[in-house]
Design brief:
It is a single chain. The protein is α/β, with parallel strands linked by helices and 439 residues long. 58% of the residues lie in helices and 9% in strands. Strands 3-2-4-1-5-6-7-8 form an 8-stranded mixed beta sheet, with helices on both faces. β7 and β8 form a beta hairpin. The protein is elongated, with a radius of gyration of 29 Å. Bound molecules: guanosine-5'-diphosphate and magnesium ion. The site of guanosine-5'-diphosphate has 19 residues, from α6.
Length: 439
Amino acid sequence: LQERLQGTLKKMKGKGKVTEQDVKEMMREVRLALLEADVNFKVVKKFIADVKERAVGQDVLDSLTPGQQVIKVVNEELTKLMGGEQSKLRAAQKPPTVVMMVGLQGAGKTTTVGKLANYLRKEHNRKPLLAAADIYRPAAIDQLQTLGKQLDMPVFSLGDQVSPVEIAKQAVKQAKEDHQDYVIIDTAGRLHVDQELMDELQQIKEAVSPDETLLVVDAMTGQDAVNVAESFNNQLDLTGVVLTKLDGDTRGGAAISVKAVTDTPIKFAGIGEKSDALEPFHPERMASRILGMGDVMTLIEKAQTNVDEDRAKELEKKMRTNDLTFDDFLEQLGQVKEMGPLDELLEMMPGAGKMKGMKNIQVDDKQLAHIEAIVRSMTKAERDNPSLLNASRKRRIAKGSGTTVPEVNRLLKQFDEMKKMMKQMSGQQKGKGKKKGGM
Ligand code: GDP
Ligand code: MG
């Protein structure tokens, strides 16, 4: 989803004027991107309609940067679709707050019980009790007990011979006695939604009236996750959703449609297997992430307006194969200058700030003029093959360009570093496809 949307948006960004036709074409692309990402088609339809309506409105088309305005609208509508504001956990007026975790087998319920407990203690200084009410899956109780031990938190269990309803009731009672302020109930799942499971969950719900009934769904299952959410919500009146495995979800379809389809907010996102891999879900951040609208976009945009695309590709290939010449270097520097202060550009590149040798490459206009003069004083053979530059050639070049030998040497060094940096960067680019799911 990210890649496709970003491609479309990038095209849009460079545009000075946007026509209604442009918006239409762009929306067609966005629509495809969303469908490809396994977003529910009804959600897509409404989304496109909403964006179109706002985007072809006068204030967008007439604004100075209509391309950007359209993107802003897409971002805002996407945020709205995912719930707008961040949705917080409800708390009981009188502790303990009871949280019931429900969901299909393997969705991540038990893991999330541990993660949520850890989060509540770490971020809110709360004391949770974990309740083991999955008596069906072999080793489910053990799994929770192990988590409890790792986190140094109490786990309530009555073994697997007592009904889950009774376990839940007793756990809440225990928490009251021990002044624990949260009870987080782990429940059983099934491979598919079935009535027997729903009945049991309903009974637990009636018995302990949880403040939160959280559905745990696996984001990687895309539209299935949304269907599951719909069935659970119909039967159990969910108060929230925890989207797990967002770290492995590259399409984002579930994140986008769950709220729209079930009208239940996504409250947390699971982004890994460990106990600290849980974060409050921020619709806005998720939208920006999906659209790739961080600083990287700004960078791409800046580069795009200055670098002719074919030429850029050619250069990139040269960088990779390492046969960048001084002529290319000169051209690069010219473009870099047009893009703005180099430091600023580098800051926008993820990881670039940490690159070694970066600080030695600084360009101001005066330096650039010198560099240009030096390069122009080289012969064609020297530009293509800097290793030819021995002491006498360097002296000749310094003289010809009105500079000094140390300056020529410095440029050679910079050129070398630039080559290295370019190599590093093109290496990075290749590894960039798999982004972390965090927000
Ligand atoms: P349950 O059957 O719903 O209780 O699911 P579990 O809590 O046992 O989790 C099933 C598997 O999913 C385990 O291997 C977890 O480590 C894994 N898992 C849970 N949440 C996440 C997550 O956010 N990211 C990743 N990568 N794995 C997760
Ligand atoms: Mg479990």
